[in-house]
Amino acid sequence: MNRKICKLLTIVLVISLMYVPGCGMKPQPDILHVAIPFSEKIQDIDTNYYINYLEEKTGLDIVVSFVKIESCDEYLEVLLDSRSEIDIVLFGGSFVPSDGVLEEYVARGDIYLPDGEFKYVSEGWDTPAGAGTVLWISKEWLVKLGMPIPETTEEFEAVLEAFKTGDPNGNGIHDEIPLAGSLDEYDLDPVEFLLGSFAVNDPYHSRMTVDGKCMATCNAYREGIEYCNELFDKGLIYDGLSECSYAQLCEMVNRPVPVVGAFTSSSIGKVIYGGNPEVMARYVHVPPLKGPDGTAAAMLPENKTKIGAVILSRSEKKEEAQLLLDTMMTEEASLIARFGEPGVDWDYSDGKDISIYMIPSTIITRNYIRDVVQNKNLNGVGPMAVPEKYIFGVTWNGVNSDSEYVDARAQMAYLDFFVQAGDGLPERNEELSEYLDGYMIMFVTGEKDITDDGVWKKYVSDAERIIK
Amino acid sequence: MKRMITKFISVSLAAAMMLVPAACGRTTEEDVWLEKAGLDKEETAEELYEKALQENVLVVYTVSTRATQTKEAFEAVYPGLCVEIKDLRSPDLVDALEENYRSGHSDCDVVICNDNSGEFKERIADTGIAVPYLPSDIAAKMKDPESNTMGSFTYEAEMLFYNSEKYAECPIENIWELTDEKYKDRIYMPNPLHSFSTYAFCGGLLGEEDKLAEAYRDLYGCAPETGDASVSAFFWKSVSENIIFTNSSDEVLEALGSGSADFGFMVSSKLRFINLGYDIAPVYRLKPFSGCRTSYSAMIVRNSENINSAKLFIRFLYGESDGSGEGYKPFSTGGTWSARTDIPDGNDVPLDDIDLFVPDQDVLIKNREYLENFWTGVLESKA
């Protein structure tokens, strides 16, 4: 009987062991916890083509935690104070750490840097080396008012006045905002664009030139601010410029009844919501305007290396984390991260097509998935290294409201207006930038009198002291 | 009497469309759709509006951004109706319509397309994927109702322009002058494989070889030595040495406007940009041609579930019964010519006073493979 019971127990044990995960079956993949900023553009992360591709390539189980805190800095602070099991944080879109934040965490030992450098960058989602900002103007309103696209600051002022007084949206209300903007980012601030008609203006490098001259203290720059102050006084620049957020600017521009005559942005898609061809069709780019002495300089882009991801030092799976991020940086993965599923959303080109930059094409887009709801990649979030030949070789998908195509045409129109090269510029001086930026808006809004020589002299001498 | 004829034409057109399904092997379900669509019904705009209010968002595929203005005017005139515009390049639009049809999606209700390359006709109109809708009260006002089998509502041209800031008047009189080396990289033209109107012009010259050869003799005093090539192939090979190919007419316009180009082939409707300050001027007189005539069609897409909205939108696009409707106005600008007798041309110079030819679509359809191979070779040689 005992033997029988023993035999029965053995059989039960053997059978039960067959159901224990990991015993005699495929090993369970290592789990990596990855934080990704929440995006309504990603349909379902569990079935996302890119995530599935990465899991297949690495053999890892990627568990995604969506971050709903909008501020990246705030999230990192909360995360690092918590006991969260996140191994990797991915950045992208507006979810990016402020300057110096990551370096601080590295110094504190919270962020792990393989090979001692931020190697998981994001290269290829944004078009590199374009103009820092572009002026977009309502073609519809120009046509209604019978005015040509302005070429000079004088003509521009006349256009803005007509926008203000001519009721171009036809609703009988004086609700038009001739020139809108936000101080949240340099490219969204129209003053930055307009200053290029008076002097070289490079806010990303503290308004310094290659030879170390601060343009923000020269007379030409002062003339530019006087011009902007005049526009502001006349109500031609949005009177809420100082308080207007990026999101508010977008809301104003995208209203069904148009209220914005012109705005600036490095990309039209940054301000106009995706899938909005009617709004997109309202605006055309305007090349840099000629100032009183003929100056017309395009603003250089920020061209800062963008970090796509970091590994937390406390992660117990640093090797696996590196494996995942190294895989994301391969050409194959980068092309998925940028263009979607190969053979479905894009194909390699045989070179017979023309790219949006009017060179022989390298990539043909079949489905345009950038900034639309899709399930093929992370819509620009995370590290990638797309080779330049594919960025500039991408074909147009034939959609007139394709923001990348609209941007490419604008960027090409700005090519002849770069008066200084991006190389050799001095490092950005945060203290100086903060000082100059603060004064600039005070001068424009009239809080400080730009025409007062005493005020100007003090401004200049304080700036010089910071520079020294 | 005229009204009766027009009504007859309208009814005949609808009857002809009823026959299309049989020819294309349509399913019974689709025949039911066509019957239910009632394209030959006499319906007023008011009646259609009432019924359209029960329908969903109307989706319009278009190759012209001007359709967005028509949409905005339509929504203002007919509160409660919504239109979604999807603007596509002609070949992509045809592909999308075919794909929708194959997969059984009724994603699009109305299509506005350039109908000149033969491709729209062959793949969309002749297969019945889209059907014309021309109400009898509007048919009565059309310049050429008998031959308007694809719902053409406006005429345009694919033609040569020059930079008017650089040249006070057109510096050439003969199209062969464009082959002169001094114009290297100074001529811009959309890729003919991705632009129906450019394709129509480039391919259409195959049917105009005698006139092209004659123009060569006028200029050089001898016949062109083309070797094994046809005259038109010889012309395009020679001139393409000087051409920078673009994706669209917009890029040609911008190149002319910025002074990067001396000449550019583009759609004539870009003439409206003169009002925005672009330094462009059309070449109306050129031996033997400055370009070719083109037209735009508006049709209802088979299996549309918003048939009343679609009919109402097309009526609106045509300018309604008396031609005064807002819907046609975006298409009545410089570089356009009206397809209706009661709406004046948008262009000051009439079509007849411009050196244009009308591309023979049968020639384009018959020679498609040759033309595609030829232009593929030209583009590859530029890469």
Structure annotation, total helices of chain A? 17
| Number of helices in the DSSP assignment of chain B | 14
Strand order of the largest sheet of chain A: 2-1-3-10-4
CATH topology of the largest domain in chain A: D-Maltodextrin-Binding Protein, domain 2
Account of the 3D structure:
- The complex is a heterodimer of chains A (468) and B (383).
- The longest helix of chain A is centred in the N-terminal third of the chain and has 17 residues, at 2-18.
- The model of chain A is unreliable at 13-24 (pLDDT under 50).
- Chain A starts with a helix and ends with a helix.
- Chain A has 2 domains: 31-125 and 304-397, Periplasmic binding protein-like II (D-Maltodextrin-Binding Protein, domain 2); 134-302 and 422-467, 3-Layer(aba) Sandwich (D-Maltodextrin-Binding Protein, domain 2), CATH 3.40.190.10.
- Chain A has helices at residues 2-18, 49-58, 72-81, 101-108, 139-145, 153-165, 190-195, 219-233, 246-253, 268-271, 277-282, 318-328, 331-339, 388-392, 403-414, 430-445, 453-467, and strands at 31-37, 61-67, 88-90, 111-112, 122-123, 134-138, 177-179, 260-265, 283-286, 309-312, 346-348, 363-365, 384-385.
- In chain A, 37% of the residues lie in helices and 11% in strands.
- The radius of gyration of chain A is 27 Å and the shape is globular.
- With 468 residues, chain A is α/β, with parallel strands linked by helices.
- Chain B has 383 residues and is an alpha/beta fold.
- In chain B, strands 1, 2, 3, 4, 5, 6, 7, 8, 9, 10, 11 and 12 form a 12-stranded mixed beta sheet that branches.
- The interface between A and B is medium-sized, with 32 and 35 residues.
Index terms:
heterodimer, A: 468 residues, alpha/beta, D-Maltodextrin-Binding Protein, domain 2, five-stranded mixed β-sheet, B: 383 residues, 2 domains, twelve-stranded mixed β-sheet, 12 strands, disordered N terminus
